[in-house]
Structures are given as C-alpha cells and as structure tokens.
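Kindly go through the entry underneath: sequence plus fold tokens. Please state briefly how this chain folds according to its tokens.
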Amino acid sequence: MTIHKDKRVLVGMSGGIDSSAVCIMLQEQGYEVVGVTMRTWDVPSHFSTPGQEQPDEVLEAQALAARLGIEHHVADVREEFRQVIVKYFIDEYMRGRTPNPCVMCNPLFKERILCEWADRTDCAWIATGHYCQLEDRNGYRYILTGDDPTKDQSYFLWKLPQEILRRMLFPLGGMTKQEVRAYLAEKGFEAKARGGSMEICFIDKDYRDFSGSIVRTLTNASAGWFVDSKGLKLGQHKGFAYYTIGQRRGLDIALGKPAYVLKINPAKNTVMLGDAEQLNAEYMLVEDVNVANLEELLTCPSLSVRIRYRSRAIPCRVITLDDNRLLVKFEGPASAITPGQSAVFYDGNRVLGGGFIAFQQAIRKIAAENQERFSK
C-alpha cells in the first residue's frame, strides 16, 4: 500500500510511555510513522548495564520501532546540545537568573531538529508526546492546555513559532496519563516511565549543585554574603548560583524567623534575604516575547499569566513599553518574580504567548509612569 507524504509523520521517540503511545495511535490512524531518538546528554542513570554503548532510551525506542515495523533513526546531537542548551543554562546562572532550559530546548533544539529530520525523511508532520492540544483560530495556530491538569505541558511550549506549530501533532492532549497507560496495556505494550518536559534531563541530581559547581569553576566565586534589603551582612552563603528567588529551604542560616531569597547579585556574589511579604509584587517586566497576535494579548478581557510551572494562572493586564518589553499588572496575588523564568499568557485554556521574566530594576518607577495606560 502506498501512503501519501501527507500521511508520513516523524515522532520524537524516547522509548517511554508517552512517545510509545503516540507511535501506536498514529499508526492505527493510518499514518506512516518514522521515529527519531535524540541522544542529547549521557548521565549514568541512562545506562542500565556495564559496557552499554547506547543509553536506555535509544535501545528501548529501537525495540519498539522493530516491533511496530517502523523506520527509526538516532540523532547524536550531544555536542550541539552542550553548546546550545547547557551553555544557556550556565550563562543564565552566571547572570543571576534562574533558567528555563526546557522552554529553550523546545524551539531552539528539539523541535528544530525534528523539523530537520522531518524534511530529511520526507515527513509532512511532527508528533510528540506532550500533553497539550492545538486550535486554529483567525489564521493562527494556538496551543491549548491538555485535558489532564496534572500533566499539562503547554507552559513549556510558548516559544514555538507558527511555522513549527503548523506541522505539529499532539495525540495525547485529550487524554490523562492513566488513560495512556491503559491504552498501551490494551495494545499489549509496556513502556518505562521517562522524565517529562518538567525535568532537567542533563542533571542527575540536584540542579543547584550542578549550576553552583559550574559557576564556581568558571568564576572562582565561592562563599559570599547574605544581606538584608538595606545591604547589611547577615552571614555567609556558598555561592550565588546555589539560590533562586523565593527559595526558603536550604539556606543554612538562622535568623530567628523564616527567610526567603529576594534578589541575587552575581557581580557582588550577594544574596538578599527578607520576609515572605517582600516577595509580593503588583507589576512585572517581561522580555523576549513571542505571541501569535500581540493586539489580542493587549486587549484580552480574560487574560491571565503563569509565572512558573505548576503555578496557578493569575489574572492580569498587559501594556507594551518602548524597549519591546511588556509591563504586566497583576490583578491577583503574585509572589517571587524570578528573572529567567517564563511568563506564559492564557485566555482560558489557550496560550496566547509568553516571554522571559526580566530583571525588575526600576519597576516601581516604570509602573508609576505607565499607571494611566492601564486605566484606559
């Protein structure tokens, strides 16, 4: 049987539950499935037996492809991954920001490479196991949240451009994780659980230990000072890269009351501590914005924003600034505005776009100068 190119789909295969289910579903729907597994970063836990040459995810994806009778490729992109994603992660920490490597990995790396392989293998479509959905509206393609709120991954995909979204398929968006497991079992398949898009795949243990040791090696920065909001020294810390805005646990300092990280200054290697109330914010600056329709974002009457994965969406309003940043005014409680993390804007369950949370210098002055624009 000859299958038209429009029914050829490239699936990013990890050997895990989600991508395995995607392969089987699409094959049942009449697609000719081609699989590709990216070898991005080797860590010890990815190798089950001594002397194993390929990581587990590659071997498991190959086994599934053989069982399904589908074409399969391995893309060894370890060096490029190190130069693009790991470098970004380290650079952000050296700037005193908290990076979002999974957000950057999707447009800059994984989906870009999937597009290249789709072109190379003559596939019209690209499919992944992300728990989200798609909707075409007014000439744009939008990401929708997945039906399983505990697995929804729409937050991580805001940076995908329209040209990639128009080729994407997300077969699992209307299912729960339990339903996917049951589907695989019904088909006689069993796959191992793999880390999803909310985990940092190149770090085996605590990401702060990883980032802290790297930054210390590159900058010779080790112990520095905890300070209060007036700049008074409170005690020593082990290096600014070990901390993130809003952190309370693991500070290893006794002040007689709970303390939270308020600000990080990499140039001085200082970490400012304060009370939980000092983390509260009414405004936020967002940069490096990607939205399908900016006018829709600015005029949306039911706009909300998520400022970290798993956080609730906060009602808000948005205006543009002359320097291409957005000024966000929260209309609900917001806390721990963390530079480097993603701010993702929603209209209900539809992602309108997002940006990276900027450093908040002069935020009060900027907000005061633009207050009247929010009342229009």
Notes: The CA atoms of residues 19 and 129 lie 5 Å apart. DSSP finds nine helices and 17 strands in the chain. The mean pLDDT is 90.
